[in-house]
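User: Structure with guanosine-5'-diphosphate-alpha-D-mannose, tokens only please.
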Amino acid sequence: MTYEHTVPGELGDPAVRAAEVAEPGAVTLVVPTFNESANVRQLLHRITESVPSRLPCEVVFVDDSTDDTPDVIRAAAQDCPFPVTVLHREQPVGGLGGAVVEGLRAAASEWIVVMDGDCQHPPSLVPELVATGERTNAGLVVASRYTEGGSRAGLAGGYRIAVSRGATWLAKALFPRRLRGISDPMSGFFAIRRSAVTAEVLKPLGYKILLELAVRSRPRTVAEVPFVFQDRFAGESKSTAKEGFRFLRHLVGLRTATPAARMAVFGLIGASGFVPNLAGLAALTGLGLHYVPAEILANQLGVAWNFLLVEQLLFRERRAHRRWWDRAGRFALLANADLVLRIPLIAVLVDRFGMAVLPATALALVTTFVVRFVGTEALVYLPRRGTAADRTAPETAR
Ligand code: GDD
Ligand code: MN
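Assistant:
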């Protein structure tokens, strides 16, 4: 990583302090950039016009570009009346969210505003975000498209609008308490007090850094300010379909921070395995196979399906300590043991303990399910001490 101060002077600089007007404190604008060379000059120009006269500011770009964006920033910074820093990362760990966390770590001012580098977020709103935070004593102020007076005008096309709406609804349904009072948890434009930043607990994954912050370390008071999402000044969105899948993984990761929640997701994945299982059974018996071997084979299809989903969604970060065939073998063994053990267990419950068949079956189902979940977590995905963290490859942006 390279730190470069292109314009001398810090926020503590008396020359910068002199510009201070009504609002107390100062603000660092954290701007993540990936190949935004056609936008950064315009952005700095708009910041210059609307921020320093009302609030002393400094700008930190966290850049993962493969083009000349850092050079363009350096050149444009010469005309800026505030310090501009480019923090170029060699490895784009965590993508956009990872870049923002780097910026949060680097910032030293009382307030930090995170905004995009493509001019979709109007800098003229920055003083108002900070002023609202001061007035309401909030730790986090979200610029929202979905509160009265806000709009998503710049969101291109019906498809993007539907996806954004669906994602917002899903996130709010999964985290009703944490996201209360946040109408736009997908927003990439927000102000946060430095004292409310807990960079060490954040595990950013892709675009939704505000969601990460709100769910993992929500400040006690949160405020919102409406804003109109502008058109991109130049270039194209860097968001892809892959980013959509990453968002789903991010949601699952946030939702499964506790063992109880992990068990629930494990159960849901298991239930979804009925689909390939039954489809396989229909196909195999259709081909004329006897139903007993067909059952056994079809069950393996369900096991494979569950394994894939569990690997991709639930234990993605806990795989590094075993090879994939080792994990697959253990997983399949546990899944089949579940089936093999269930019938004898039912027999014991009925014959030895005099239970009726139905409750005995239900109890056996629940028991083997819990045993299977605990077994899978412990025997397949529990990292051996001191090894997993060292070997987990950091996730890169693209
Ligand atoms: N450092 C870094 N690394 N910056 C990145 C990366 C990355 O891997 N990917 C994207 N960026 C930067 C872009 O250069 C831009 O400045 C900003 O992050 C937003 O990227 P866009 O590609 O313009 O995103 P968008 O307009 O589709 O999405 C924005 O609006 C969404 C709401 O609809 C973002 O603000 C999202 O966070 C937000 O959810
Ligand atoms: Mn954008």
